[in-house]
């Protein structure tokens, strides 16, 4: 009887240590922070890639690990890069090249960077194919819309049908909101922010004109200018026209929530075999 009792106790101890080991392993896996890739700007004259530190701080405060992604030269390189991160942020920057959405450049068009357009499109294409979560910010929103077949106002002041009534290119600090946006209640953006009216900053003179197929407008400025689009449920993509990273860097929990959502969506990696997405080429 003693032998049987000893054997049972040993088995019990083995189960205990096995359970403890499994707990440590699972905890270690769950504790791994997702890698959030951030597209960078590219300067041919200075031969540099860079991005504002506001993006880096926003990702860190949201519990992710920021990874700066330099220019990629082809689609294969983009796949290799995106395979190693869990989500993608398309950051702000220059105007999107109008030929990419079939228009002639308007007189008020700002500086463009076709090399960066092509790189960002390859990164986006790879992220969608691999099912990685995407957050577009300012130019990032515009590039997402163009990549999926939408168009842009090249210059709001000269092209928008009704004269804008709010300041879209603010001259004050990015840490200060300059106008409000109205959020569609039936949207993922509303689920994150839990508010129908948000105070945002604004540094753009281009905006979404025709929204891309499979995407919907989920926020607008008081003058009607599109301020956010999303591709749910088909695409794991949310894109905003303002710069929430400024607010998140300052520790504003409301806006950190937006980046925490990206970190959470990073776990959703359902690949899409045939996304309705364009290869970067001039039309």
Helix and strand layout, with pairings?
Blueprint: H1 2-31, E1 35-39, E2 41-43, E3 48-50, H2 53-61, E4 65-69, H3 75-82, E5 87-90, H4 114-129, E6 133-137, H5 139-147, E7 152-153, H6 156-159, E8 179-183, H7 188-193, E9 197-200, E10 207-208, E11 216-220, E12 226-230, E13 237-240, H8 244-249, H9 253-265
Parallel strand pairs: 1-4, 1-5, 5-6, 6-13
Antiparallel strand pairs: 2-3, 7-10, 8-9, 8-11, 11-12, 12-13
Helix pairs in contact: 3-4
What's the overall geometry?
Answer: globular
User: What is the strand arrangement across the widest sheet?
Assistant: 4-1-5-6-13-12-11-8-9
The total strand number stands at: 13
What is the terminal separation in angstroms?
85 Å
User: The CATH topology is what?
Assistant: Rossmann fold
Task: Tell me about this structure.
With about 280 residues, the protein is α/β, with parallel strands linked by helices. The chain starts with a helix and ends in an 18-residue tail after the last helix. The longest helix has 30 residues, at about 1-30. α3 (about 75-80) crosses α4. The chain has helices at about 1-30, 55-60, 75-80, 115-130, 140-145, 155-160, 190-195, 245-250, 255-265, and strands spanning about 35-40, 40-45, 50, 65-70, 85-90, 135, 150-155, 180-185, 195-200, 205-210, 215-220, 225-230, 235-240. It has a single domain (about 35-265), classed as 3-Layer(aba) Sandwich (Rossmann fold), CATH 3.40.50.
């Amino acid at each position: 009887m003693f032998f049987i009792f000893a054997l049972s106790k040993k088995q019990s101890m083995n189960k205990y240590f096995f359970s403890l080991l499994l707990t440590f392993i699972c905890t270690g896996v769950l504790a791994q922070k997702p890698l959030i890739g951030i597209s960078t700007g590219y300067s041919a004259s200075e031969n540099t890639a860079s991005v504002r530190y506001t993006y880096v701080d926003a990702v860190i405060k949201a519990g992710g690990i920021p990874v700066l992604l330099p220019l990629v030269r082809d689609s294969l390189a983009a796949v290799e890069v995106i395979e190693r991160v869990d989500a993608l942020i398309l950051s702000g920057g220059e105007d999107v090249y109008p030929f990419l959405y079939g228009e002639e450049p308007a007189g008020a068009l700002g500086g463009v960077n076709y090399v960066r357009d092509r790189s960002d499109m390859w990164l986006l294409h790879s992220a969608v194919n691999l099912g990685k979560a995407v957050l577009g910010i300012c130019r990032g929103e515009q590039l997402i819309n163009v990549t999926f077949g939408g168009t842009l106002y090249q210059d709001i002041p000269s092209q928008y049908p009704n004269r804008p009534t709010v300041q879209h290119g603010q001259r004050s600090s990015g840490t200060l909101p300059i106008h409000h946006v109205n959020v569609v209640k039936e949207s993922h953006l509303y689920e994150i922010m839990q508010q129908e009216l948000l105070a945002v900053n604004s540094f753009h003179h281009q905006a979404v004109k025709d929204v891309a197929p499979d995407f919907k407008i989920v926020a607008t400025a008081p003058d009607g200018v599109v301020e956010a689009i999303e591709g749910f449920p088909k695409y794991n993509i949310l894109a905003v026209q303002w710069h929430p990273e400024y607010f998140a860097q300052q520790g504003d929990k409301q806006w950190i929530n937006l980046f925490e959502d990206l970190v959470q969506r990073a776990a959703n990696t359902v690949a899409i075999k045939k996304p309705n997405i364009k290869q970067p080429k001039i039309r």
